[in-house]
Prior knowledge:
The complex is a heterotrimer of chains A (363), B (252) and C (300). Chain A is mainly alpha-helical. Chain A contains 14 helices and no strands. Chain A has a domain at 22-265. The radius of gyration of chain A is 21 Å and the shape is globular. In chain A, 50% of the residues are buried. Chain B is globular, with a radius of gyration of 19 Å. Chain B has a 6-stranded mixed β-sheet, with helices on both faces. Chain B has a 4-stranded antiparallel β-sheet with strand order 2-1-4-5, with helices on one face. Chain B has helices spanning 40-48, 70-76, 93-104, 118-131, 146-158, 176-193, 204-210, 228-233, 235-242, and strands spanning 2-11, 14-24, 29-33, 55-60, 63-64, 78-81, 164-168, 196-200, 213-218, 221-226. In chain B, strand 7 (164-168), helix 6 and strand 8 form a beta-alpha-beta unit. Chain C is mainly alpha-helical. Chain C starts with a helix and ends in an 11-residue tail after the last helix. At the A-B interface, helix 1, helix 2, helix 8, helix 9 and helix 10 of A face helix 2 and helix 3 of B.
Amino acid sequence: MTELQAESARERVVEPLSVPRLDKKPQRSRSLDLLIALAAFTVLAALPFLFSSKALLDFVIRCSAFGLFATSLNLLVGYTGMISFGHGMFFGLGAYGFALIMQRTGLPIPVAFICTLLFTTVVASVIGAICVRLKEIYFAFVTLAFQMLIHSVILSWVSLTGGDQGLRGGIPRPVFLGVDLSNYVHLYIASCALLVIGLMLMRQIAQSPFGYTLRMIRDNAVRASFIGIDVWRAKLTIFVLAALFASTGGMIMSLFVSGAYPEFAFWTISGEGIFINMLGGVTTFLGPIVGTVLLLILNDTVTRLTEYYGIVLGIVILFFAIGLRKGLMDFAVEWYQARRDAHGPGTMTRPRGGSGNSTEVAG
Amino acid sequence: MLEVQQLSKSFGGVKAADDITLSFADGSLTAVIGPNGAGKSTFFNLITGALVPDRGHILLNGIDLAGRSPPEIVRHGVGRAFQVARIFPSLTVHETMLAAVGADQRRASLLHRRFPLAETRDRAEHAMELLGLAAKRDRIAATLSHGDQKLLDIALALVLDPKVLLLDEPTAGMGTEERWRMIDKVHELWDRQKITVIFIEHDMDIVFKIAPFIVVLCYGRILATGTPDAIRRNPAVIEAYLGSEHLAGEAI
Amino acid sequence: MDLDALTGCLASSACLVTQGTSGFIIGMLLFLVAVGLTLIFGVLKVVNFTHGAFYMFGAYFAMTTYQLSGSFALAMLCGAAGTAILGLVFERVFMSRVYGGDVLMQLLVCYAFVLIFDDVVRLFWGPEFKAMGMPTAFQVPPLFIVGGVVPPYYLLLIGVALGVAAILGLGLASTRIGKVIRAAAHNPSMVSALGINTGLIYGSVFALGGSLAGLAGALAAPVRSLTPGMGFSVLIESFIVTVIGGMGSILGALIGALLIGLIRSFGSLGFPLFTDGLMYLFMVIVLVARPTGLFGKEVA
């Protein structure tokens, strides 16, 4: 093989993922995003007063927790190309960290929240510093190893964590700033707020110069470093940032179940995160949210209909992985793009995998 | 001025670069030619830091670059375009330029603004226009033609404002007409930007037409240097390229 | 944490032998599973996340065959052969579609099948723990070596595992088929250009790898309880073994498996709740020091 062929062979293996396009007018786009976020929050916050179904509200809270987790995973997988099999460890650490702080100290909830984030930052920085220099599959393995290690620690440190029974005794919820998290509606609205704020922040990260640095690293890390980018530092930064949002999801979960369980740190959480991203599609920012909603609906419906949940879920996964080969949002974007192109000039869409688009798809 | 002194590199018993000493004046345009395996790409790799020389110095305006890391060498002002364009497949041309310029402006880690930044736009615009890619700004890099990808590759090297630009076979993989267009572009670039350009090339027509100065490498050593005319008449060069039957009774 | 139990055991030769053999067994079974995994990775460049399911099917096939026929040998055979066929079909129909693509895609396809296979087993055999029981041929008193207890069945296990290791090692190194397989691993297009059916090679290698896991499951069936979830923990452990030993290295799988087996066996004395954790800790340490594993080569 000549260098030419070898190079092209290597290049072809990278499947280019496309992510939402450039902000042509960045300030206006930011305001637009803000508007959408506010609108979404208003709709969500109004739900308890429009519907009396607790199941619906429970669903939204669970979506908030997993949505934050899955979107943060997309920052790693979709935007930076870092496939982490262990991201769930931060979900678990967030749940246990927050629950333990509240149970053992008398700190107000906002302070406990910040402390948990600080704790996550420390752990993520250490683990990240070790992991991010590894490439691809090795990065995946070591992150998984760390997650299972943490899971083992949680299981075996019974005096601290309650072992395989989980953390019991509930979570004290002192009122802060008029917010009483033992009131279900307050908890609901707080979850929605965290979701919307978290998404806004992650959106900002994705559309900032740093976000584009991440895309460059994903596409061609060597070239990126030649351009002067400190690849290791960028990867470590996004690793820690993603961990923070994942652990926020964990905190929502712990408040929701009033405790923490070892399952929150088990590898299946990471697996579901990856699956959610495939379901919803990694090429749009809101893909993971769509994926979360789909997965939760799937979970709930299937467990109600049959005890052979595994077979159904497995078939669904196969359908997406082998059949569709892309997520739902990817389809939506391509359809939208095709309609646009039918009426006027557009940029070429990518032959396979993600879609090429030049317009800012809202969200 | 780029000076290379006694640059040497061996792999096992093979001398990929053997005591190369050259100097490139500021703003000069030089072609590096030689038969396959002559060590042209090795030469480039040594300058850009992809390979660490066994011996020798690489002085850019007096600063020795030998042994430094590639990103460091890039920062000192050495840009390189690759034989097979190394670009960012999923970014558009415009995004690529903005991101690259932004990185050079040390804005790669900004979190609080939205992309693109005003300060970055103009330079990116200028770079795209220089390479003739402005009309294709919204095309995704992976969908560009081979030639355009190479132009983008060169643009990526240029945005860092290098003092020396190394072009590794800029016309590789192209048909005749496209080649001339590409080399015209290279020439135009060199003329406008007034930087030192060194390019590896196999097409002799192009080399003799365009390059004011030529370096011939063979088996890692410098075989000859000089103007196109001098090189054309150089017996050692003729022998290396065409074989010793053209020379009466000279042993190598 | 019970360090006294651990140090006490290390001081007693009887305990050393008992725990040591036990660890050896765990290691040998793990080796069979892991070598299948590493073979599949080395030749097909794919990480087979369904590998634990083959182990599980091997055990269940063996158990049912033994219950129906009373023959231990037949049970072992069915365990290995059944999973070989399963592996061939699975590879040809599904895995071959995701070669060369994302690791993500491979992971998802395998994850899907893990879910499906677990439920299939639950459907046909029921979710409860099942036991095959020790075959009558081996219902003999255990051997006492230096005071330690060694069930004779263990010796069979060790023998089979080492035999497989030897056959594999020699086979790949010196037979023509072995050379073809190794060539296909390095340069599939070249091999196919030579007129050799790479699809057949891929299918066979996958079948071989899967049947090794199935054989391990069949061998383990008399001494372990069977449950639909049994594939998972084996999968994780065999992963750790291959990653520690180096993906693609048979020797690495052997050494890694032995190390893990011994860590499990002695570790469960000293750290009964944290035994898994010890394994993961070890994995982390090895990977941080040598990301490609002890004997691994750089992935191209």
